[in-house]
Amino acid sequence: MQTFRLSRWSVLIFAIGMLLLLMPLQEAIHRARPDKFSPTRKMQTGSMFGLGPTPAVIASLGGFRTVAADLLWLQMERVWDSGNWFALLPLLDAVTQLDPHFVLAWKVYGWHCAYNLNAESETIVDRKYWLNRGLEILQGAVEANPNSWEMVFELGWTYFDRAHENYRAAEYVKEADAMPGSPSYVSRMSYRVYEHIMDFKDLFPAMQHAVKEHTDEHAHMRVVTRDIEWWTNHWNDPQEHRRQIVIENTARQQRALPYYLFPNDPYWVVCPYDGLPSPKGSKVCQTCGRPFPQTQPGATTAPAG
Amino acid sequence: MSAQLTRLIPLIGLILVASIIVITRRAWAPALGHSIPSIWRIAKVTVAEARRRRVVQAVIVLVIVILLSMTFFSYLSPQEQSRMIISSGLTAITVFGILLSIFIAAFLIPHEIETRTIYAILSKPVRRFEFVLGKYIGALVVLGVITAAMTAVLVLVLLAQSRLVQSTAESAFNPNLPAVIFAAFMNYCALAVLTGLIILISTLSSTTMTVISAFIIWTVGSMQSTFHDLAEKAYGAAKVLLLVIYFIVPKLENFDFRQEASNYMPISVISGWDAVLHGIGYTIVVLLLAAVFFNDRQV
Question: Which residue in chain B has the smallest CA separation from A2?
Fold first, then answer.
């Protein structure tokens, strides 16, 4: 039997040389997976309320961050049933910090602030606060998941349905629609945001775009074609305008978000006497008939009555 | 440095080593002809030993029970269920795979020395590096079978749940099987690297010390990027120490694709290939060192 002996030095030199050769490869792996290896991912917490785990805790969990997030999520489900809405915040904050790619957790977190806590609040200032918090959380979610159409759409939807900032919502919905994997309802939503404010200049191009998307979906094509036909016939129909105003008005009343909290409202102007909206540009209140003063009600002034 | 170049450097290194082996084949070939059957025989004995170990059998049963119990998440929505099963299932495979890897590899060589059965083996025409390599390959086969079995159970649980759960348009149960299988395979690659390192430690120390060291290495290896980040922020001796730790520890975090699989994120197969390439290079180094240390060890 032949025997081979390598000197210890040659083995040691080979070992160090090999490990050195592997270093650039390791750097390439770090660059290829920034979600996992980026230093900012672990050393800076994106916590919205400072309630989540510290960066040291996140780092020390190593490969078990996802499991820790899962366990906290299960705990969150339990607290949810107790109805203690504010106790959910630290849990949701921790879950989203431990696993920033947990899309459902971000959605629930943003929705919980913008809808539940907003509705639970007793003062207008609190309502505005929780709405803004919800929007901030969803902005953070989009930053953490730039390739997720779900997150971008959720932000757009909250701007549309909760904040009633339709132009801003339109930007996000359009962005979500252009992302791979977005379903047909995102395409339809991209023109619905204009439909609600009756911006016909933007509505028709958006509808024309939507009809070219998801052409293989029969239901989508039918709905979009019907909408194009409807608005082509009714875009200058005052009766239809009034109907849309009622829809928007009812939606806002149901959400209990006063108009004067939105000074940049693209469509409405609020009567300072009865607090009810009239279309922007109106000289007199359409409800009480009194003329509007020269200066419109500001963002902080509550309407009388 | 471009990504292609960084990938080429270790590949060139491996080709260089292979070329040296081919050039010097006249010296190596007869030895290889002898080595391969010896290594295979030792590997077969290692597999047979592992099969008899009660702790291995108990852990396999435990992990299968845990994977099957994941169907209890039925009170969650379909979307949550699929995420929970994938995430917890892959973590169970990782944790129990690592535990098995430690308890199999740490006992391979020290146990032979402590029970003195090694004298019977080394008195035969078996070289020490063949013994080390045979033990390593045997451990790899055992871990491969166990990982495949655990992955198969997880896949079955996911398939069964996807049939049972009523998915809705808003919340669909997505078993994400290709990503789950890929993550489980990468987990096996991590076990292969860790097993090599445990065998290296076991050639130098007792069983207890090997087990303790293996747990420490696992913990540090799972946080390799944290050491990298800390080293970048540190100064002086602390920086050197952290860089040395980062340089030496196995990069187990490279093989962790659980987050991608459970969050339905796109998986970078290229970075998986890079991790495997890195793991092969690292394992060659540790096994070579293990062979040298074991050669010098008095038994």
Answer: B31
C-beta separation of B108 from B199 below 8 A: yes
Tokens representing B3 are: 């990504």
* pTM metric for this prediction: 0.78
Dihedral sign from CA coordinates of B16, B17, B20, B22: negative
Domain ranges of chain B: 35-296
Write out chain A's pLDDT in tens, 305 residues: 555 556 777 888 888 888 888 888 888 888 888 777 766 554 444 566 666 666 667 766 777 888 889 889 989 988 888 878 888 998 999 899 888 889 999 999 999 999 999 888 887 788 888 999 999 999 999 988 888 999 999 999 999 888 888 889 999 999 999 999 899 999 999 998 888 777 888 899 999 999 999 989 888 999 999 999 988 888 888 777 777 777 776 776 666 555 544 555 656 677 777 767 777 778 888 888 888 876 544 433 333 33
Q: What six digits make up the tokens of B196?
A: 């090599």
Alpha-carbon distances of A13 from A17, A224, B123, B248, B287, rounded to whole Å: 6, 70, 31, 14, 15
Q: Using the beta-carbon criterion (under 8 Å), do B252 and A30 form an inter-chain contact?
A: no
Which residue, among A22, A74, A77, A186, would best test binding to B if mutated, counting the most B CBs under 10 Å from its CB?
Answer: A22
Q: Is the residue at A103 inside a domain?
A: yes
CATH of residue A196:
1.25.40.10
CB contact under 8 Å between B31 and A4, yes or no, is yes
Which chain B residues contact residue A70 at CB under 8 A? 83-84, 87-88
Q: Which of A6, A27, A65 sits opposite B292 (nearest CB)?
A: A6
**Which domain covers residue A75, as residue numbers?**
49-279
Strand partners, A42: none
Domain count, chain A: 1
Residues 6+ away with beta carbon under 8 Å from A35: A41, A100, A101, B259, B265
Q: Is residue A40 part of a domain?
A: no
Q: Is residue A32 part of a domain?
A: no
Q: Which residues of A touch B80 (CB under 8 A)?
A: 73, 104
Query: Which of B10, B79, B229 minimises the CB distance to A42?
Result: B229
Phi, then psi, of B231 in degrees rounded to 5: -60, -35
Q: Please give the backbone phi and psi of residue A279, each rounded to the nearest 5 degrees, phi first.
A: -60, 145
- Taking contacts as CB-CB distances below 8 angstroms, the residues of chain B near A29 are 251, 254, 271, 274-275, 278
Task: Report the C-alpha gap between A63 and A227 in whole angstroms.
Answer: 50
In a domain, A297, yes or no: no
CA-nearest of B197, B253, B246 to A37 is: B253
